[in-house]
Amino acid sequence: MMSEDDLFAPAAAESLPTQGQPLAERLRPRALADIAGQEHLLGPQGSLTGMLARGSLASLILWGPPGVGKTTIARLLAAGANLHFTQISAVFSGVADLKRVFDDALKLKKAGRATLLFVDEIHRFNRAQQDAFLPVVEAGTIVLVGATTENPSFALNGALLSRCQVLVLRRLDDEAMELLLQRAEAETGLRLPLTPQARAMLRAMADGDGRALLNMAEQLFSLPSAGTLNLNEEDLSRLLSRRAALYDRDREEHYNLISALHKSMRGSDADAALYWLARMFAGGEDPRFIARRLTRFASEDIGLADPQALVQALAAWDAYERLGSPEGELCIAQAVLYLATAPKSNAAYKALGAANRAAKETGSLMPPQNILNAPTKLMKNLGYGEGYTYDHDTDEGFSGDNYFPEGMGRPDFYRPVQRGFERDIAKRLAYWAKLREEGA
Q1: Distance between CA atoms of residues 343 and 309, nearest Å
Q2: Cα(68)–Cα(193) distance, integer angstroms
Q3: d(CA 224, CA 222)
Q4: pLDDT in tens, 78-93
Q5: Which of 221, 227, 228, 224 is nearest to 202 (CA)?
Q6: What is the pLDDT of residue 377?
Q7: What does DSSP assign to residue 86?
Q8: Global model pTM greater than 0.70
């Protein structure tokens, strides 16, 4: 069973491509060296090249986006290592299917032939089904090659991951995509009817997916009088629908892009922050999620260096709730620009972390008696509130009293930076520290 997302699965020797097959099928490589865009794995110094040269193929997890050659690599690895190739899809298979595959592999092993089992979309198996692979992998009954578009750290259990080597396949870059177009033109004997700018746009529309690129190219080759056309970008947009950006709000890309936005703002790169914000909007992200993260950022990475940052983030959130999309998205963009260009400080974030650690370490120490209220006669008799100094009654409006539990000492949680408004706060703290020392 071939994966629909795989571009590069090789044609079997007895089934050579014919003109009636789809273009992507006709262009499937028959050698690992012909696979485009994965030189880090298949080049002279690539890890897979080294495995085959040593004759020691390990169980693998191939992690990468659609259309980059996962199924083909598995098939060609089996051929290169002289292993029997078996393929299943986790979408359509269950434990009974696995048992049949394992039984067949055991028979082949007894006959002296090892099996490479390729599991497409292995992340779709639940934890118990993944555990079924452990004994047969350990016993060497199969060499497991799993393909996934999801982060294996989250999608696969630790026991299975510990028995496999994870290899990352890259989305096809512009150079690899152009190579595929050149192969398509050589195979068909036709020129793509595009201007150079439209040709570049076609590569961008495929978004790193080789199969999608070839499918769109095939549509262009089939146009009437394609050989005489020279379509521009506007013509191409009318003919082909742009593929949706690779983005899943419940999956890893969701967290990748919000991380990129957060770190761009932290790095005070307003242009990069706007780019990642636009990517999230284009991918269909809920603007409320973005607004919530901006609010967190305002406290975590700016804090009191600019007290208006939190106000701006909340105002953008509120404005979006009132306006909705797309009008409200501009308000979120404005907040992104404000946060990206604001002075940065994580002093409040670090101070809370230090205070939390101290609170856990000191347990249930009581506050000093002089700062406790004494609403009853008994509490007054016990000394509650005795010796408290009302700060407003002092000349400086500052008493310098100790507000920590007795015996705890005076920790230094909050350390403002010399940026933005925190410069003024640092001066105040230094002044009060001096008064405190003079009063001691």
Answers
A1: 10
A2: 25
A3: 6
A4: 998 889 999 999 988 8
A5: 221
A6: 85
A7: E
A8: no
Rounded CA-CA distance 298/340 in Å is 10
Place of tokens 């096809």: 172
Tally of residues, the chain: 440
Both tokens of 56, joined, read 């020691």
Q: How far apart are CA 230 and CA 227, in angstroms?
A: 8
Give the Cβ contact number of residue 229 at 10 Å: 14
Q: How far apart are CA 243 and CA 383, in angstroms?
A: 74
Residue recorded with tokens 């994966």 = 3
HEC profile for 137-151?
A: HHCCCEEEEEEECCC
The Cα-based distances of 300 to 253, 267, 294, 346 in angstroms read 23, 13, 10, 6
Q: How far apart are CA 382 and CA 315, in angstroms?
A: 49
Cβ proximity of 187 and 21 under 8 Å: no
What is the rounded distance in angstroms from the CA atom of residue 309 to the CA atom of residue 311?
Answer: 5
8 Å CB contact between 166 and 63: yes
CB 142 within 8 A of CB 117: yes
Query: Which amino acid makes up residue 366?
Result: M
Distance of CA 192 to the CA centre of its chain: 35
What are the pLDDT digits (tens) for 146-191?
Answer: 999 888 988 899 999 999 999 999 989 999 999 999 999 999 999 9
Classify strands 165-168 and 60-63 as parallel, antiparallel or unpaired: parallel
CA distances from 271 to 1, 277, 292, 341, 355 (A): 45, 10, 21, 10, 35
Among 103, 111, 170, CA closest to 135 = 103
Neighbours of 391 (CB within 10 A): 12
Residue-wise pLDDT tens digits, 122-155: 999 988 889 999 999 998 899 999 999 888 988 8
Q: How far apart are CA 159 and CA 177, in angstroms?
A: 37
Beta strands in 60-114 (DSSP E): 60-63, 84-89
Whole-number Cα distances in Å, 414 to 70, 310, 322, 350: 51, 18, 37, 7
Residue of 10, 67, 15, 12 whose CA lies nearest to 38: 67
Query: Residue 208 in contact with residue 67, Cβ under 8 Å?
Result: yes
Question: Phi/psi of residue 197, each to 5°?
Answer: -70, -40
Residue 227 backbone dihedrals phi, psi, to 5 degrees = -65, -20
Q: What is the pairing mode between strands 142-148 and 60-63?
A: parallel
Q: Taking 50 as the threshold, does the pLDDT of residue 5 lie above it? A: no
Of 239-243, 300-304, 328-332, 430-434, minimum mean pLDDT range: 239-243
Nearest to 193 by CA among 210, 216, 173, 170: 216
Element at 120 (helix H, strand E): strand 115-120
